[in-house]
Write a structure and sequence with these properties.
The chain is built from 19 helices and 2 strands. By secondary structure, it is mostly helical.
């Protein structure tokens, strides 16, 4: 243990990756925040979701309205979450110590990390499928290597997956600053590529797209789908609104967060919606068929050079999304679990290895795993968010003694009872029961899209009602134990 600012820093709670970031020298500007969303919003998974709204029978304006509703809610939620990181400089696992306790924080960080590490493997697999398409197009002789199966994946599939796996681990090994630079590079590439793909489809469709819904819906059903679509859009980002502080701990000012979020969420999401409408509506106009994602359109490009360029852009996109959404969270979770033995780089390799050995292509092809395991973990993200936000904003009013988050002193404010805050755990369990019931009970199917909101709302309300009253909270920064944000 070492001593700083009158506090005994525990080696089980503190290392250079878990330490708060120093305010001076932070590098994440509004553009850095914007490029996070420029990449993540345009992910293949998000396009598949938005195209699914078209398949349900929603027309162009209804899809845009649903995405708009979700975007406004996300803009507000992400600002509140982001401000916490900018003020304290803390990564998510340490931020969780405020409400759950120095040991209870493992609950929230491991749930978030488990969801992310599974999706890291799945997203890498989906990217490897695109790489296989490109390789076979360039070298047709490789096609036989894509016909066999080794643990559920072809020989070419293993080569493609392994190459992308290594590339991502190398990038992450250089830390958050390298991730920032990669996102800044990838953002414009993705925006230009997706816009160009939409223009190409529009031209192929003769300058006309399917604007009206392809299935009849009653007025009530239409409005239900609009708001359900907006709610699900927020749920998709339930991971990000939880650990957005992992990125904004490096943000220069609150203004940079608001500005980056504004251009990256409402404005960028409307552009995303317009591209989705053109891709899905244009392709439907061409041959009366529905696409499942932009990769379906890419395969139809007759020019090999353009097809390869589009595939490369989609690979750049998927890597960018994986780095920010599915790599950072488990890396910090593992670092928080074993701070004496793991730093950011080592935790990255451990996380990546787990993402490999779970054979994610088999998970992706198993609906039970996707729906019940990953869906169940996802349903817990709302309750976690509710507890953490209620504690920070409503109970403490943003007052945190940062240095005391790193001590095992039983008299410290975040030790609670043996390192756990029973009130936070109680609120989490009650809200989790509500969220899981809404998400999985067939009789509640109509309200299932709103499970995240029910979980977050119930958790926040319960925690606020049972939280300690009359406690005087103090506010001290962590500058005395902080490290440079570019370490």
């Amino acid at each position: 243990m070492s001593r700083a600012a009158g506090v005994e820093l525990s080696e089980h709670l503190y290392n250079k990756d878990l330490a708060p970031t120093r305010r001076a020298g932070r590098t994440w500007s509004a553009y850095s925040i914007f490029t996070l969303w420029a990449n993540d919003v345009h992910s293949l998974g998000n396009y598949a979701f938005a195209v699914g709204l078209f398949a349900l029978g929603m027309g162009a304006w209804q899809i845009l309205l649903a995405l708009g509703v979700g975007a406004v809610l996300l803009f507000l939620l992400l600002n509140f979450s982001g401000f916490m990181g900018q003020k304290t400089g803390l990564p998510f696992p340490v931020m969780s110590r405020i409400s759950f306790g120095i040991r209870g924080a493992q609950i929230s960080s491991l749930i978030r990390g488990a969801v992310a590490v599974a999706w890291f493997g799945i997203q890498t697999y989906l990217a490897s499928v695109i790489l296989r398409i490109m390789l076979i197009k360039l070298i047709p002789g490789l096609a036989p290597m894509d016909q066999n199966s080794i643990l559920g994946l072809s020989s070419l599939g293993w080569i493609a997956f392994g190459a992308l796996w290594i590339i991502q681990l190398i990038i992450v090994s250089y830390g958050m600053e390298m991730i920032r630079k990669y996102e800044a590079f990838a953002g414009p590439v993705i925006l230009v590529t997706m816009a160009a793909l939409a223009i190409w489809v529009f031209v192929q469709a003769g300058g006309s797209i399917q604007v009206q819904g392809i299935k009849p819906m009653s007025t009530g059903e239409m409005w239900r789908n609009v708001f359900a679509g907006g709610a699900l859009w927020v749920s998709i980002y339930g991971t990000f609104v939880l650990n957005f502080c992992d990125f904004t701990r490096n943000a220069t000012t609150r203004k940079s967060i608001v500005k980056g979020n504004f251009w990256g969420i409402p404005i960028n999401m409307l552009l995303f919606g317009a591209i989705t409408v053109v891709l899905a509506g244009g392709q439907f106009k061409i041959n009366g068929k529905l696409i499942s994602s932009p990769s379906d359109v890419v395969q139809l490009i007759p020019n090999t050079v353009l097809l390869v360029a589009a595939c490369l852009a989609l690979l750049v996109l998927t890597v960018a999304v994986n780095l920010m959404a599915n790599f950072v969270a488990p890396v910090y979770a593992l670092t928080n679990l074993f701070p004496k033995h793991l730093d950011f780089r080592r935790a990255a390799w451990v996380s990546g290895t787990i993402g490999l050995i779970i054979l994610p292509w088999n998970l992706y092809n198993n609906p039970i795993v996707i729906v019940y395991f990953l869906g169940g973990l996802g349903a817990l993200l709302g309750p976690l968010f509710g507890v953490i936000m209620a504690d920070y904003w409503l109970v403490r009013r943003g007052r945190v003694e940062v240095t005391k988050l790193y001590t095992q002193d039983p008299t410290a404010p975040y030790f609670y009872r043996k390192g756990f805050n029973p009130k936070a755990v109680t609120a989490l369990l009650i809200a989790a029961a509500v969220a899981l019931t809404i998400a999985f009970v067939p009789a509640l199917e109509e309200v299932a899209p709103f499970a995240w909101f029910f979980g977050a709302g119930v958790a926040a309300l319960v925690y606020y009602l049972i939280a300690e009253r009359g406690t005087r909270y103090t506010d001290t920064d962590g500058e005395t134990i902080a490290i440079a944000s570019t370490h």
